[in-house]
Amino acid sequence: MKNLPVTQGHVLHYAEFGHPAGIPLLFVHGGPGSGCHPAQAKLLYPEGFRIIQFDQRGCGQSTPGGSLLGNRTAALVRDMEALRQHLDITQWVIYGGSWGASLALEYAKRYPQQVLGLLLRGAFLARQEDWEWFSTPHGVAQQFPAAYQALRQALATPEGANPILSLYQQLLNPQTRQEDAYRYALAWDVWECTVMGLSAPTFNPDSARWQRSIHRARVYSHYCAHQFFLSPQGVLPGLEAIRDIPATLVHGVNDQVCRYASAHLLADALPRCQLVAVEAGHGMHETTLQQALQQAATTLHTNLTSCPHFPD
């Protein structure tokens, strides 16, 4: 296990996979609030890339789990740069899926000289309209009215209020019992799985397994409640700083979490971005999405190594 202490008492867990002498690639997980899994590295051409996975603040195996202290987008971007310096890497590729794509773009805008290329999947632009699409009755909820109503009831959401804000308030309330906190987190997990077409999780009586779900929901709702610590336009401002960075965006045309129209908007803003449309949704459980990502990673590696200016 490898750990990197950063600020506000956070200690990041990271791990390396793939070719030790390959092109460095930072794997940025989604969420916010989820973590990394070794199996994910297999999708990114480990034969050619040195893949570094890290769990963001409060996520996965990073400690303290679920901590919101100093947990904001700018801090996560600084953590990524601290990890690059810690590993003595000059330049690297940044991979990010969903929320991870948001962070990948924010990092590239802040540190463009360190980025060889971007590999994005199911990009989340983090605009106000994007998270409202997923959490208010006027967006994807219209396609799943029964599931959305069940979510509102489970979180005791007042009429006219956003259930994600109810989740945030419930989880930050010191009077909330652990079992209740787990049930609130579970309700949101069920909603996400419904939208992505996955089997909904059920109540787990083993209380030892509750904390991970609670931590994930705390971090997730924290970022949503604070508009991802970005402007209402999300990651779109400042993209001119990375116009010359080669990028590939793999996006499912049936994505109900991060709409395909957003992918077009992002690709149009980046002249060197190739948009790969896939007959898939948002989840990485879909084989067609996995295959497209594997192909994109292989192609990116080939393009980078064939570039006459590629550093030896």
Could you give the topology of this structure?
Elements: E1 2-5, E2 11-18, E3 23-28, E4 49-54, H1 73-86, E5 92-97, H2 99-110, E6 115-121, H3 128-135, H4 145-154, H5 163-172, H6 178-196, H7 210-225, E7 247-252, H8 260-269, E8 273-278, H9 287-306
Helix pairs in contact: 1-2, 4-6, 5-6, 5-7, 6-7
3D architecture notes:
The structure is a single chain. With 312 residues, the protein is of the alpha/beta class. It folds into 2 domains: 200 residues, Rossmann fold, CATH 3.40.50.1820; 101 residues, no CATH class. It has 9 helices and 8 strands. Helix 8 links the parallel strand 7 and strand 8. It starts with a strand and ends in a 6-residue tail after the last helix. The mean pLDDT is 95. InterPro entries: AB_hydrolase_1, AB_hydrolase_fold, Peptidase_S33, Pro_iminopeptidase. One of its GO terms (molecular function) is hydrolase activity. It is an enzyme of class 3 (hydrolase). It is found in: Cytoplasm.
The CATH topology of the largest domain turns out to be Rossmann fold
Instruction: State mean pLDDT (0 to 100 scale).
Output: 95
Termini gap: 29 Å
Judging from the principal axes of the Cα atoms, what is the shape?
globular
- CATH domain class of the largest domain: Alpha Beta
Gyration radius over CA: 19 Å
Strand neighbour order, sheet with most strands:
1-2-4-3-5-6-7-8
N to C succession of SSEs: EEEEHEHEHHHHHEHEH
Percent of residues in helical segments? 25-40%
Helix-and-strand structural type? alpha/beta
**How many strands, which pairing sense, and closed or not: the largest β-sheet?**
8 strands, mixed
Query: How many domains, in number, for the residues?
Result: 2
As residue ranges, the low-confidence spans are none
